[in-house]
């Protein structure tokens, strides 16, 4: 129950005639009460969120270990089934809850691999790219791969090299691995290869 200051009722005021910077507001003041909102308990309200949190713990670790996308997919799907959920329900939850970069990146991976949905490489690339522009390392690695292999976008080894280089600047082992592939297999402009890299 809110406690309110006891105020004497105001006389009827003609606001148009009585307005001045010092005029008294007809509203009572100090009448704030606590909001009647209930508490938020995510475990009780959204059980899928726990499964998503488990996936988000393992996904970056698998990427960090330079695990192939197929192995990452197998691991994620296995984890989903171990938690008695379906990949399609996880995909739907991620589609409805894109409020963090990690959720968007995981949704992008689901779209890239067709986990619980139809493959949509272009949409996956877009999700990765938006997160990568905000300097999120995992997304930068995914964007570099997309450019290197031409997944969801045109194949551009020069852009792949630049994105892997951005990853290296954040001390990413996967970035070093990607740069190595560019040096060995890609036809990258010599100007890019010879440019100094800040390690």
Characteristic terms for this protein:
about 200 residues; mainly alpha; disordered N terminus; Sel1-like; HCP-like protein; TPR-like_helical_dom_sf
Which helices and strands, and how do they pair?
Blueprint lengths: L14 H4 L23 H4 L2 H17 L4 H14 L4 H10 L4 H13 L7 H12 L4 H13 L7 H13 L3 H13 L4 H5 L5
Tally of helical runs: 11
What is the makeup of the main sheet?
none
Strand content: under 5%
Give the proportion of residues in helices: 55-70%
Any idea what the shape is? elongated
Q: What is the terminal separation in angstroms?
A: 61 Å
Family: Belongs to the sel-1 family.
Protein name: HCP-like protein
Organism: Gigaspora rosea
InterPro entries: Sel1-like, Sel1_AlgK, TPR-like_helical_dom_sf
Précis, in short:
The chain is an all-alpha fold and 199 residues long.
Overall description:
The chain has 199 residues and is mainly alpha-helical. Among the domains are: 46-119, no CATH class; 135-199, no CATH class. The protein contains eleven helices and no strands. It is elongated. It comes from Gigaspora rosea. InterPro entries: Sel1-like, Sel1_AlgK, TPR-like_helical_dom_sf. Pfam families: Sel1 (PF08238).
